[in-house]
């Protein structure tokens, strides 16, 4: 199974409620998978303040205080280093270039798994019950313009922090998946021969690396997802986001569910309608199910 | 609160002869348990605030009217026998799946696998139905006011499916003896499904189905009938070498 949710706010008056709304959506989908969960939040001022690079990591060998000290020693003197404990994830934010912060984090905390990076993005994920994780992330207090989430029932790889979703492997990008890819090993080998490095044995990571690879090559999201449909075999509903947009696509058979709801104030996507019932104005939202292999994309 | 503990007063109020059951105040199993009681006094039940919950009003087994006010999740009114269920909203996956008799009316759209494997009764979806509508239907009548998605009526064995809009890819793949009537376009036909002549008895049958679904004045001449070419499921001597 697995559950996916996404909320793209059009009305800035709702930005302060993003975390509350996303928490409700995520927790309603815990029946679809409760071994791991994760979210990506775009625009939260605690985790990813404007003008800062943000790097999210799990399995850090250092405590938040140790990580801050280590980064302060690596970065130019006087650089303010923010480390937010959103257990089991740490979010580091520093007003430097994203790549400079990634390099510093890799040096300061070898062995930690980077699960997201970019501007205005925090990725929080881990093993455990979705409601317990949402509490320990402090998700309900989050603000911002967009969030996606995933509740996992593992099938293709072990229940580990690295196996949980979202997969945020390109700058500001994020992908969540309900389903399973059947030819991921073949595509993983092809990507590896071209130098792509993987963090896990998970099938979804291959999809995320594939999309990131195509976006890095200059393709737009719609074309990248069309290539994914032509390349990947298996079942999927995918929700793919970056700072400015999010997109939904289902495989040709479309047996993995998805419901889209739209109002003037927001666009929301979920595996099931019941995840949307807490959204303001849902009673009058336009509701539909995405067609197979058609790419739906929204931009800020 | 124990999910199985009935609370006879809280959230249950009799308005005239209609019993109202509020899913915002009562557990789903409790509501379904009440609907299954042989001695339930009310002939008509209104279910409020379904909020997309699964399995609302499943397994009804006597003549009664049930109206659900809002959107339902998976398998709503599944396995229905004798009851008449109206859903004033959209329905999730598998509405009226394995229905035996009675009727289910969805005022909005239905998700995939509407009426799957149903043996009897009448399912009406006033809006669109998604993929796999009527998959493996075994005798149910289904009337869809809008269009249906891909792989609908796959391995449909018996019954009738009427579509006032269009049908998606692979309609009627590996179909047995169900009869399909489509007014609009069919994106493609599945294996062994072919267009067939509309003889007078088919116009009569179609008119009756449309009438029973509340579409009285429909012109049946706009419809095409589809069914099995019967080349797939019978043994044919030309295929001996394949065995």
Automatic annotation (TrEMBL), chain A:
- Superkingdom as given in the UniProt entry: Bacteria
Tell me what reaction this enzyme catalyses.
D-fructose 6-phosphate + L-glutamine = D-glucosamine 6-phosphate + L-glutamate
Q: Where is the Glutamine amidotransferase type-2 domain?
A: 2-300
Please verify whether the record's keywords include Phosphoprotein: no
**Enzyme Commission number, as recorded:** 2.6.1.16
Sorted UniProt keywords: Glutamine amidotransferase, Transferase
**SUPFAM superfamilies to which the protein is assigned, alphabetical:** N-terminal nucleophile aminohydrolases (Ntn hydrolases) (SSF56235)
Q: What is this protein called?
A: glutamine--fructose-6-phosphate transaminase (isomerizing)
Source organism of the structure: Streptomyces carpinensis
From TrEMBL, chain B:
Question: Could you name the domain of life of the organism this protein comes from?
Answer: Bacteria
Native species of this protein? Answer: Streptomyces carpinensis
Descriptive protein name: Glutamate synthase
């Amino acid at each position: 199974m697995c559950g996916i949710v996404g909320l793209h706010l059009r009305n800035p008056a709702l930005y302060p409620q993003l975390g509350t709304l996303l928490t409700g959506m995520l927790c309603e989908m815990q029946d679809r998978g409760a071994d791991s969960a994760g979210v990506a939040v775009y625009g939260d001022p605690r985790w990813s303040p404007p003008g800062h690079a943000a790097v999210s990591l799990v399995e850090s060998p250092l405590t938040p205080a140790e990580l801050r000290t280590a980064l302060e020693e690596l970065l130019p003197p006087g650089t303010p280093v923010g480390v937010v404990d959103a257990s089991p994830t740490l979010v580091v934010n520093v007003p430097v270039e994203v790549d400079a912060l990634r390099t510093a984090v890799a040096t300061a905390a070898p062995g930690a798994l980077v699960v997201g990076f970019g501007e205005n993005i925090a990725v929080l994920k881990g093993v455990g019950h979705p409601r317990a994780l949402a509490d320990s992330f402090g998700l309900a207090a989050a603000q911002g313009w967009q969030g996606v989430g995933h509740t996992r029932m593992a099938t293709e790889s072990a229940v580990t922090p690295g196996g949980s979703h979202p997969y945020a492997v390109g700058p500001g990008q994020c992908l969540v998946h309900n389903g399973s890819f059947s030819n991921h090993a073949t595509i993983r080998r092809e990507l590896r021969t071209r130098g792509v490095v993987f963090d896990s044995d998970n099938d979804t990571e291959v999809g995320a690396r594939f999309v990131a690879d195509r976006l890095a090559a200059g393709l737009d999201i719609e074309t990248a997802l069309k290539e994914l449909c032509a390349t990947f075999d298996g079942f999927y509903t995918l929700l793919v986001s970056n700072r400015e947009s999010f997109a939904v696509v289902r495989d040709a058979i479309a047996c993995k569910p998805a419901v889209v709801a739209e109002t003037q104030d927001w666009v929301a996507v979920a595996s099931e309608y019941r995840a949307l019932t807490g959204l303001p104005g849902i009673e009058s939202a336009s509701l539909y199910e995405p067609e197979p292999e058609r790419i739906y994309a929204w931009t800020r | 609160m124990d999910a199985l503990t009935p609370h006879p007063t809280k959230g249950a109020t009799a308005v005239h002869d209609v019993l109202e059951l509020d899913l915002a105040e009562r557990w789903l199993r409790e509501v379904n348990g009440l609907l299954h009681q042989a001695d339930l006094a009310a002939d008509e039940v209104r279910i409020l605030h379904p909020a997309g919950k699964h399995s609302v009003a499943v397994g009804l087994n006597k003549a009664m009217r049930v109206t659900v006010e809002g959107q339902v999740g998976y398998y709503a009114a599944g396995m229905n026998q004798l009851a008449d269920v109206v859903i004033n909203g959209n329905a999730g996956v598998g509405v009226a799946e394995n229905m035996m008799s009675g009727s289910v009316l969805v005022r909005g759209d239905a998700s995939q696998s509407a009426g799957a494997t149903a043996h009897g009764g009448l399912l009406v979806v006033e809006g669109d139905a998604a993929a796999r509508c009527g998959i493996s239907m075994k005798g149910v009548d289904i009337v869809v006011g809008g269009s249906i998605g891909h792989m609908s009526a796959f391995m449909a064995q018996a019954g009738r499916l009427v579509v006032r809009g269009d049908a998606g890819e692979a309609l009627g793949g590996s179909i047995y003896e169900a009869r399909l009537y489509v007014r609009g376009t069919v994106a493609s036909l599945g294996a062994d499904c072919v267009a067939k002549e509309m003889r007078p008895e088919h116009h009569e049958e179609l008119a009756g189905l449309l009438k029973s679904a509340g579409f009285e004045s429909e012109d049946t001449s706009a419809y095409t009938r589809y069914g099995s070419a019967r080349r797939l499921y019978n043994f044919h001597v030309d295929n001996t070498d394949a065995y």
